[in-house]
Amino acid sequence: MAYIDSTYYSQTFGGSVIPASDFPRMAEIASDIVDCLCSYKIPDAMLTDEKFLKAVCYQTELIYEQGGVDAISGLSEASQSGGSESLGDYSVSGGSGYSSASSGSQISMIYGIPVSPLTLMILTRLGLRSAWVYAGDPRRGG
Q: Could you give the CA distance from residue 97 to residue 109 in angstroms, rounded to a whole number?
């Protein structure tokens, strides 16, 4: 079940426009991702917490902007940027696996799924983030 609805997302959060036909699926995917990022079942009291709901909204927005269902199936532009290409003296390489968002041009990826850095920060601040999410995070020494 999705933690947010389109009314909350558009009117309270003020997120970018997601077509009504796509919104339920995007919110469901984002909620599943948030569940996986948390160390245990989300407490019922947290389900109405503004910060928690914002974390889900940021993830919903990112998933939609990264291609919707393609973002979780490995077909998004961000997940396919992990190769290299060269032509003469010119070459371009992309990363794969966990990418930090520190350069501003990268999307945080966990197991090939784009994850909003704001979602991660909010869940951490709320004490909900699972320890496995830190594994491999160069910013945490993993």
A: 6
114-138 confidence digits (pLDDT tens): 999 999 999 999 999 876 655 555 5
Closest CA to 111 of 59, 68, 74: 74
CA–CA separation, 57 and 81 (whole Å)? 25
Give the C-alpha distances (Å, rounded to integers) separating 15 from 60, 61, 119, 132.
9, 7, 14, 29
CB 112, CB 79: distance < 8 Å: yes
Q: Is 127 in contact with 119 (CB distance < 8 Å)?
A: no
Distance in angstroms (rounded) separating the CA atoms of residues 138 and 50: 29
The pTM assigned to this predicted structure is 0.74
pLDDT digits (tens, 9 = 90+) for 34-78: 999 998 889 999 999 999 999 999 999 999 999 998 888 865 555
